[in-house]
Amino acid sequence: MYLKEIEYSLRNETLIHKLTIIWQKSVEATHLFLSPQDIKDILPQVVIGLKQIPILLVSFTDDDEPIGFAGIADDKLEMLFLSPDSFQQGIGYKMISTAIQDYQIKYVDVNEQNPKALKFYLRQGFTIFKRSPLDSDNRPFPILHLKK
């Protein structure tokens, strides 16, 4: 496994498609509070985010297949998703460690209804400093705001 920052010019449709599949499978495995329609509705925003996020880190297998990604804007981790087949293998830890050490992230948001993700970030030294009852699109999915 290796981690690589993907420049805008290398974010082709094939890569974006593979990353959206990772996102969908990850969300289906971890965001049990979302309906299939919610996931379908959010997907176009994910595609835009993958194309526009200033820093896109992608984890690849040794065979150059993507297995996870993280998106960073300023000092905030905006997204971190792994293929469910890659859960519990230290890949998420490597990605968050890289984001903290190399990109100086200080903030991350997590869905309150995703306790495993919250536990993951708390183990990395983040603390909750604020709660929002709605997500950024005013959907009824409470968000916990964490800082390092």
UniProtKB/TrEMBL annotation:
Domain of life assignment: Bacteria
InterPro entries reported for this sequence: Acyl_CoA_acyltransferase, GNAT_dom
UniProt KW keywords: Acyltransferase, Transferase
Pfam families: Acetyltransf_7 (PF13508)
Keyword Transport: no
Acyltransferase found in the keyword field: yes
Segments forming domain N-acetyltransferase: 6-148
Protein name from the UniProt record: N-acetyltransferase domain-containing protein
Organism of this sequence: Megamonas funiformis YIT 11815
